[in-house]
Write a structure and sequence with these properties.
Arc Repressor Mutant, subunit A, 3-stranded antiparallel sheet, 11 strands, 8-stranded mixed sheet, alpha/beta, 217 residues
Length: 217
Amino acid sequence: MKLYFEPDDSKHEVKVGAYVADIHNDSGIIEIQTRAFNKLRNKLTEFLKTSPVTVVYPLPKTKWLLWIDEETGDITKKRKSPKQGRMIDAIPELYRIKPLLSQPNLSICIPFIDMEEYRNLNGWSDDKKRGSTRYNRIPVNIVEEVWLRTADDYLKFIPDALPHRFNSKEYMKAASVNQKISQTSLNILYHVGAVKRVGKQGNMHIYERAVLNSILW
């Protein structure tokens, strides 16, 4: 991913202040993170004081699973996972840096990638797959890039099937997510200004899409 976003490897792992940036080039700083965005908070806060920053969060679009027998080293034939990556999969990690999402210098790039995932057969279930550990992921194709730069971009998290006004239960159903992800999504969308609260229905907020025009924060 570093070579994809910056072919010149002399611009990789560059010290910027007290931290090391994955990439530092003429366009700013690029950080590639596959999980644990909470560990980025202090680093991003410092970087954003002086430079535009892009956080790249690769997500699997189509994934093929291969299982490794730890005793023999044998690897199974690859099997296509029935799960397809979606935008909503980014929500838990974005929430971990929520206070920074409205910073004008911050962009989020979500590349959807077809990949092969190797997993160790060391789980607790009879077939040793549940609770197993991931060994490696190998990208095979970049399908598309989704960019979040403005409040308008976050409207991509709102399913088209939703009416103009909706609550968290309706969002949960339309997005096919659980209650926690529904509430977290709307928390983020409200924070960045992509939706507004226009009333209450019992103890639930009523939300409405904000009228936006790709206006910067």
